[in-house]
Amino acid sequence: QLQLVESGGGSVQPGGSLRLSCAASGPGLILGHYAIGWFRQAPGKEREGVSCISARDDITRYIGSVQGRFTISRDNAKNTVYLQMNNLEPEDTGVYFCAAELTLGSNYVICESKFYSSWGRGTQVTVSS
Question: Which of 16, 55, 72, 80 has the fewest CB atoms inside 10 Å of its own CB, making it the most exposed?
């Protein structure tokens, strides 16, 4: 059973930066076989895909509002995926979740929540002056 634990959330002022981490664990885990996504949910809003990365070739997708400000990356040796968030805006506030789906090393990436079967519990990000 794959387990995901997010960390790195917090409160920052607009323009600030945070780096979120998603640590994966499980018996026989090979993180390189999984596509990983970062999703967020603001109060009263639906969960949305922020950024996703493929299992192979590190193909990435970003929602338009974070393009150029956020960077997703993965370190398979550490079983960890990161989301570097720069120039944060109040609209980035929400609970950020990481999710994983076994794609057996494929290079396609889908950034929709229904595609992912394993989820972490989330970490809160608050951007406010």
Answer: 16
Of the candidates 114, 100, 92, the one whose C-alpha atom is nearest the C-alpha of residue 53 is 100
**How far apart are the C-alpha atoms of 98 and 92, rounded to whole Å?**
15
Q: Is 81 exposed, middle or buried (0-12, 13-18, 19+ CB in 10 A)?
A: buried
Q: What DSSP letter does each residue of 50-61 carry, written as one string?
A: EEEE-SSTT-EE
Q: What is the mean pLDDT of residues 12-21?
A: 98
Beta strands at 10-12 and 123-127: parallel, antiparallel or unpaired: parallel
What 8-state DSSP symbol labels residue 55? S
AA identity, residue 73? S
**pLDDT tens-digit series, residues 24-74:** 999 999 999 999 999 999 989 999 999 999 999 999 999 999 999 999 999
C-alpha 88/C-alpha 77 separation (Å) is: 29
